[in-house]
Amino acid sequence: MAITAALIKQVREETGAGMMDVKKALEEAEGDVARAKEIIRAKGIQAAGKREGRKAQEGVIASTVIGEDGEQFGYALEVNSETDFVAKTPKFVDFADKVLADGIEAEAATVDEVLEAPAGDNETVKTAVEEAAALFGEHVKLGQFARIQGPHVEIYAHKKSAEMPPSIVAMIATDEKGADVAHEAALQISAMGARWLTREDVPADVVESERRVATEKSLAEGKPEQIVPKIVEGRLNAFYKENVLLEQAYVKDPSKTVGDLFREVDGHALAFVRLEVGKAEEAASDE
């Protein structure tokens, strides 16, 4: 595959690495973007803290919990504006709440289904969103949508400042006993951004990629080949502890894990999701 300027630009934006580093990685990967990213990570030249797929957007995340037939359902919807000036207005927040309510009423499961939901006066949410652009004087669109259910659903909505609406929403579904620590778990999800509930939920291709990067990084550091497998397993465990909710150190007491919190009350976490304004959907678990 030809290494084009557009391809280099894409990988630079997604990794934060320099142009020549990106070009060399793409050449080594023969144009395979995913492989080039792995090479960049293995060489330690990815910009610190750079998130792939980051979106420069403002907005609000509307959320609610509804109980029904012994089950609770949690819903969250991201509604984007161009500026935080618009996002923090009561009218925009009310608009987001109304769109979420329309989506719930239509039993929507995806953003596309929310857009197709009736919104009164013989219009759809899609039409209402298009008309909102004229009302607010900015481009308005829907971002992420999430629905979660269980015997208990806890929501924590985080505001980056007192005058702003929620920009991060963490939702977790638990069994009845797990409800005792659900709030603490939701705070943890909001603050630490777990991606999966258990290590078994981590996709095999993600594990393989992490293993490959850890191996190449260890070899590049000059570690003896005979001990590289042990080092790789250690780095994989560190990856799990950072990204798997039940294996994360509890922020209020690092001597225990989030999994320990649930074991102490003989409860279970069933699923969770975290939405953040302007970011790709981070973590969701079905079990």
Could you say how many structural domains there are in total?
2
Name of the CATH homologous superfamily of the largest domain: Elongation factor Ts, dimerisation domain
Radius of gyration: 21 Å
Structural shape: globular
Mean pLDDT value: 89
Can you give the helix content as a percent range? Answer: 40-55%
CATH class membership of the largest domain? Alpha Beta
Note down, in words, how this protein is organized:
With 287 residues, the protein is of the alpha+beta class. The chain has two domains: 1-46, Helicase, Ruva Protein, domain 3 (Orthogonal Bundle); 58-198 and 248-284, Tetrahydropterin Synthase, Chain A, CATH 3.30.479.20. The protein is built from eleven helices and nine strands. It has helices at 5-15, 19-28, 33-42, 84-87, 90-105, 111-116, 125-136, 179-192, 204-220, 228-243, 258-264; strands spanning 58-68, 71-81, 141-150, 152-158, 168-174, 249-250, 253-257, 269-276, 283-284. It has a four-stranded antiparallel β-sheet with strand order 4-5-8-9, covered by helices on one side. A three-stranded antiparallel β-sheet has the order 1-2-3. A hairpin with a 2-residue loop joins strand 6 and strand 7 (253-257). The longest helix has 17 residues, at 204-220. The chain starts with a helix and ends with a strand. Belongs to the EF-Ts family. One of its GO terms (molecular function) is translation elongation factor activity. InterPro entries: EF-Ts_dimer_sf, Transl_elong_EFTs/EF1B, Transl_elong_EFTs/EF1B_dimer, Transl_elong_Ts_CS, UBA-like_sf. Pfam families: EF_TS (PF00889).
